[in-house]
Amino acid sequence: MSGFRILFDASSDWLAHSLANASSELTPALARLPDGTDIVRPNVGVLELTPAATHSNPNHEALIVSAGVHGNETAPIEVLNQLVNELLAGEWTLTCPLLLILGNPPAMVAGERFIDVNMNRLFAGAHGRDEYRGLPEAGRASELEQLCREFARKHSGLALSHYDLHTAIRPSLREKFALYPFVEGREVPVEQCRFLLEAEVETLLLQHKAGTTFSSFTSSELGAESFTVELGKVRPFGQNDLGRFAGIRDALRRRFRGEPAPAESRDLGHLTIFEVVHEILNTGENFQFHVPDDVANFTEYEPGTVIWEDGETCYRVGTVPEAIVFPNREVPVGQRVGLMIRARASGLER
Ligand SMILES: O=C(O)CCC(=O)N[C@@H](CCC(=O)O)C(=O)O
Ligand SMILES: [Zn+2]
C-alpha cells in the first residue's frame, strides 16, 4: 500500500485515514494505480475513482456507494474499506467510474449515529434550513450533494446507481432489506431487483413520498437508481461478523469489475415487496407511541391496533395487517418515529 501514502498519509488505509482526519478540511490529493486508474480524494472520507480510458465499461454505468452516513453503522464501512484495500493491492481492476463516500467521519470516531443532527435527514437541500445553520453535519451534507452532482454531470452518458449502505438499530425479522425512494411514476428496474437478490437482500420497501435522505436526493435530483440498503444490525468497529456481509461485498465487487450479472440469477419471486402506508412523525408533547422500544423491524400488527395517538389523531392499523419498521421514539419533534408498511399483493408495479 506504500504507493498510496499521498492519499492516506501515514495511515494504514482509507478507513484509518478517515478516522484520523475526521474533523479536518483536507486539500485534495490524487494518485494513479499501476493499471492507470485515477483516484482523487477530494476531502476526508471521499474517493473518486476513474478507470483508465483504455478500459472498457461493459455495464455502461457509474456508481455511487456510501456508508457511515450514520457513524455507528460500521459493518458497511468495513466492507467498503476492504474493497478499496483489494483494489489498491491490485487484486482486480476497476472498469466503471466510482464515487465512494464515508458519510460522517466525526460520528464514526465517536461511535454515534450522529453528532448534532441526523445527517440522513439533511439532503435534498434540507441542510440549508435555518435550524441547521452552522452545524458540521449540514455542511457535510451540502458538500456530499455537490460532489455527487459533479460526479453525475461528468458521467451523464452512463447509467447512475447509488447504494447507501446502513445497518439497523433494532433486530429485524428480515435481516437485510432495501428502501426505494419515491419518485413519481418510477418503477424499480428488474436488473436492480436481481442485484439486490445477488447481494442477499430479499426484501424491498417502496417509499410513498420523497424525503430528505441521501438516496432520496440522488434519485430525485440526479436521476440515479438509488437504494438505502439495510444489511444487519448496528455494532461497533471490529465487532462485525463480516461473513454476514459477503453478499453485498461480492455483488459490489462484481459491479466494480464490470462483470455481467451471474447467469443463474435468482428468481424474482424470492424478493418480497412491501410498501409504506404511513409515516409516523413525532407530533409534540402529547404524542404517545404504543410500540414497545425493543420490537423487531417487520413485527406485524393486526387490524384495529392503535399505533400512536396525540389527542387529536389516533392511528389504527387499517383493514389488513401492517408491520412496523425503524421504531424509534427518541427523535426530535417533526421527525420520523417509524414507518407502517404492508406487503404488496401485486409484485413490482405500483
Ligand atoms: O434502525 C433504524 O431505526 C434506522 C436505520 C437507518 O438508519 N435507516 C435509514 C433509512 C433511510 C430511508 O428511509 O431510506 C434512516 O433512518 O436514515
Ligand atoms: Zn442508518
Automatic annotation (TrEMBL):
Reactions listed under catalytic activity: N-succinyl-L-glutamate + H2O = L-glutamate + succinate
UniProt entry tagged with the keyword Amino-acid biosynthesis: no
Binding residue positions for Zn(2+): H70, E73, H166
Active site, renumbered: E230
Cofactor requirements of the protein: Zn(2+)
Cofactor notes: Binds 1 zinc ion per subunit.
GO molecular function: hydrolase activity, acting on ester bonds; succinylglutamate desuccinylase activity; zinc ion binding
Keywords of this entry: Arginine metabolism, Hydrolase, Metal-binding, Zinc
EC number(s) from the headed UniProt entry: 3.5.1.96
InterPro entries, A to Z: AspA/AstE_fam, AstE_AspA_cat, Aste_AspA_hybrid_dom, SuccinylGlu_desuccinylase
AstE/AspA barrel-sandwich hybrid domain ranges (all copies): 271-342
Family matches, as CDD domains: M14_ASTE
Residue stretches making up the Succinylglutamate desuccinylase/Aspartoacylase catalytic domain: 61-253
Transmembrane as UniProt keyword: no
The protein's annotated pathway: Amino-acid degradation; L-arginine degradation via AST pathway; L-glutamate and succinate from L-arginine: step 5/5
Pfam families attached to this UniProt entry: AstE_AspA_cat (PF24827), AstE_AspA_hybrid (PF04952)
Gene Ontology terms describing biological process: L-arginine catabolic process to L-glutamate; L-arginine catabolic process to succinate
Role, per record: Transforms N(2)-succinylglutamate into succinate and glutamate.
Similarity field: Belongs to the AspA/AstE family. Succinylglutamate desuccinylase subfamily.
PANTHER family noted in UniProt: ASPARTOACYLASE, SUCCINYLGLUTAMATE DESUCCINYLASE
Name of the protein: Succinylglutamate desuccinylase
Upper lineage: Bacteria, Pseudomonadati, Pseudomonadota, Gammaproteobacteria, Pseudomonadales
